[in-house]
Amino acid sequence: EPEVTQTPSHQVTQMGQEVILRCVPISNHLYFYWYRQILGQKVEFLVSFYNNEISEKSEIFDDQFSVERPDGSNFTLKIRSTKLEDSAMYFCASESPPDTQYFGPGTRLTVL
Amino acid sequence: AQSVTQLGSHVSVSEGALVLLRCNYSSSVPPYLFWYVQYPNQGLQLLLKYTSAATLVKGINGFEAEFKKSETSFHLTKPSAHMSDAAEYFCAVSAAGGSNYKLTFGKGTLLTVNP
User: Fold this and answer.
1) Cβ separation of A105 and B45 shorter than 8 Å?
2) Strand locations in chain B (E)
3) Which of A26, A31, B86, B92 could link B34 by a cystine bridge, Cβ 3.0 to 4.6 Å?
4) Which residues from A are below 8 Å from B45, CB to CB?
């Protein structure tokens, strides 16, 4: 069964460093999302992406964040200068019409 | 704006007992509603969804949920709990209408099943 994959499973970085989280969505899906879950809190929407552009972004998704679909298969989330409060589990999801988002296993980001 | 409230951050049941996980939503537009399950160290797996067809929806692993508009609820039930049901369960809402709508999640309910 097709699934969304994410790499790495765990990323440790120093505050101020750039990180890139990678996702491979299900191959025929058209809509892509990033969510995050800070430990002990709810899963929060970050950004949605369709037709090579951002469809919607949350207030969390500030100028430090960017997304890209560089080669038609990968979908990446970049954080330019990480902060301690960026430590969280980051989930990628992909969707094909009509309405179901399929989630990857997540990347745990730890900022020291 | 949309929001989800899950009553009870932790529910404990005995094996074979009824499972009831509560979810209430708020939405300014007709909603789609979802239950996801997260097993330890895994991603979110869709259990079931309501997308404006039948109000009683059946999902995987014997779970079902009923959409009650008058109560703005979408509670998840299973008649008989199994040890393998132990996981965290998330209720989520999106705007009705199809794709490309963000999910808004509740805080989750951790289900433990006692032998």
Assistant:
1) no
2) 2-7, 10-14, 19-27, 31-38, 44-50, 56-58, 64-68, 73-78, 87-95, 104-105, 109-114
3) B92
4) 103
Burial class (CB in 10 A: 0-12, 13-18, 19+), A73: exposed
> Is residue B99 predicted with pLDDT exceeding 70?
no
Nearest CB to B99 within list A41, A95, A102: A95
**Closest chain A residue to B107, measured at CA:** A42
Tell me whether strands B104-105 and B31-38 are parallel, antiparallel or unpaired: unpaired
pLDDT at B28: 84
Residue B81 amino acid letter = A
Paired sense of beta strands A10-13 and A107-111, if any: parallel
Q: Which residues of A touch B46 (CB under 8 A)?
A: 100-102
- Say whether B44 and A43 touch across the interface (CB within 8 A): yes
Q: Which pLDDT score is estimated for B37?
A: 95
- Residue matched to tokens 């019409």: A97
Q: Do A103 and B44 touch (CB under 8 A)?
A: yes
Amino acid at A1: E
The whole-number average pLDDT for the span B99-113 is 90
